[in-house]
Structure formats: structure tokens, C-alpha cells
Amino acid sequence: xxxxxxxxxxxxxxxxxxxxLFEDGTxxxxxxxxxxxxFKLINMLSLPSVERHTSTLNAYVRKALLAMRHENGxxxxxxxxxxxxxxxxxxxxxxxxxxDGTWYGYREVEKLASLSGIQLRTGCFCNPGAxxxxxxxxxxxxxxxxxxxxVCWDDYDVLHGKPTGAVxxxxxxxxxxxxxxxxxxxxxxxxxxKASPSTNGSPLExxxxxxxxxxxxxxxxxxxxxKTINIFPIKSCSGFSAESWPLSATGMFCHLExxxxxxxxxxxxxxxxxxxxxxxxxxxRRTLKVLVFVI
Length: 295
Prior knowledge:
This protein has about 300 residues and is of the alpha+beta class. About 30% of the residues lie in helices and about 20% in strands. The protein is built from eight helices and 16 strands. It has helices at about 20, 30-45, 45-65, 105-115, 130-135, 140-145, 175-190, 205-210, and strands at about 1-5, 10-15, 75-80, 90-95, 120-125, 160, 160-165, 165-170, 225, 230, 240, 245-250, 250, 260, 280-285, 290-295. A four-stranded antiparallel sheet has the order 3-4-8-5, with helices on both faces. Strands 9-12-13 form a three-stranded antiparallel sheet, with no helix packed on it. Strand 6 and strand 7 form a beta hairpin. The chain is globular and about 70 Å long. It starts with a strand and ends with a strand.
């Protein structure tokens, strides 16, 4: 029902459409039906046991996030809230930084996490007061963001050099150490810039892809290559380095002639590079570990 609000001012901007203005949402009838079973399970496990379990996972992930560094030594993750995990509950709110100190957008983190099977909550979490406080947003900056078109649930995740929200992960009694480790691995692989590993004489992944897919046979007989190149297949994510890349008559081979699609029942529009369906495309496996050129 609300487009934007400021907690310590008498300011609220409501949605214009009549169906949005009076829509408070559907009652959580499935959740209501599950209450009895939920209380039964909590009584069986006991609240102290659940607290110890979630606190351990929380402390483990917080420590790992705080320890992350880019290859130039800059900080990767900024946590919000109490400095100590004790008394904070099983949630962690944070934002991620690039090696140059600028911010990764929380929407980008959310969408890439979804592709890895990780569910996050992003934005201000229905708490505009805490959001403005911990992000350091003044009244003038909040009004400026609203004038720029920023509203609840949109994709304006970074405006005027500052994030407009954050990323939050939560742990429950069903969360496992494997879940926590998977999340940490995801952050390291997708957002931490690392020095290019040595190939030690082994073929580069890009060479393997070109050879196995038959693309190499399509190159001109006189093969021209860039000497070195850093490749960033997904916007705002860390890339990888290749010692060479083939050139064609129009420039770098496959450059600006690819789509990024998801091998699932849907496509993520934010990852699409072009809209032409007849072009070659890059298939993104759900693990986000392998990019395969398909002709």
C-alpha cells in the first residue's frame, strides 16, 4: 500500500492504483494451519537448543564474511547491527563491496543467489528507520532517492553512490552447516576478486570450451588472439583471466553475440545481454560454475 516513507518525519507516499492502495495482502491461511505442528516441533526440540544451533551458524557465517578480502586487500562485506553476534538473533544483514570500494547492488546478489538455490531477503525489510540509520541516509538523500523514482520493491539498489537497502540471511532449526558453507562459497565465487591462478601448463577453461564445442573449427585459418583478457560473464560478478582470446573479422570472437539464459523453467531478464532469440547463447548451469557456448 506504501510507495515510500520516512520513519522520523510525518511523510508517507501511498500507491496510486486503487487495488494497491487498499490491498493488505492475503491471510496466511497455510501458515495458520501449520501453527499447531510448528509449536509441537519447537516444544520437542526446545527453544534453548534451537538458539544454540542458530547462534553457532550465525557466528560461523559472520566470521567468514568479515574475513573476506579482495585481491587488493579491500573489505568485501559490511555487516549491519550489533558488532557481536550475541543477542542479535539468527539473522545477518549486510552489503557487498567491489575492489574499488563501490557497492554491489542487493538485487544483483539476490538474483544470482536464487540461481544457486539460495533464498535471500533484500531491501529495507519493512523497517525504513533502521534502513536509513545503518545505511547512513539523511533526509535529503531519502527525498532525493524518492524523486529519482525509488520505491519499495524496485530495482534501484544503489543511488548516488549509496545502497538503498541491504541483503539479509536468516537461520532456523532446519538450517545446516552445509547450508551455511554453500552460502559462503557462493559469495566467494561470485563477488570476491582474486588473483588469476596459474595454469601450470594445463589448458585454460576457455580453450577447452572452444575445442569441445566445435567453435574453434569455425575460426579463420590464420588465428589471431588477444594476448591477455579478463572476462566478466555476469555483470558485477568477479571474472576470470585467459591468456588469450580468438579474434574474428568483427572483433573478439562471440563478443556482443551472446545471450545468458537459465536452464530452468524461466529466464532471468536481468542477465540477458540481447533480446534476439536466434543468436548464439551462453548456457548458465544452475551451479554457476560452468559457462558453455552453444551454437
